[in-house]
Amino acid sequence: MVGLDLVPRLLAVVQQLTAQHGRAIEIVAADATDTKLSANSFDLVHERTLLNVTNPGAVVAEMMRLARSGDIVALQEPDSSKLGLRSAAAGVGAAAR
User: Domains in the chain, ordered, with CATH?
Assistant: First the structure.
């Protein structure tokens, strides 16, 4: 699992929380439009919000670049009363309500 953010303060909080809960999460400081992570290397790429992002299209393009073909790219905005997932993966495909 990899967590990514550009803000050092937020990365420090994530690092502290993962240590407290014994989680193994790689924490990366990077711009979401150009992460420098390997293409086609994730089976799930998720973002919480694009509301405060200058170039949301570039973020989504980078997410698509990171995801393996046929795997999941999930976008979640603050009104998460409905989250739709679409994937060819077994067991995924229905919209969560």
Answer: 2-75 (3.40.50.150)
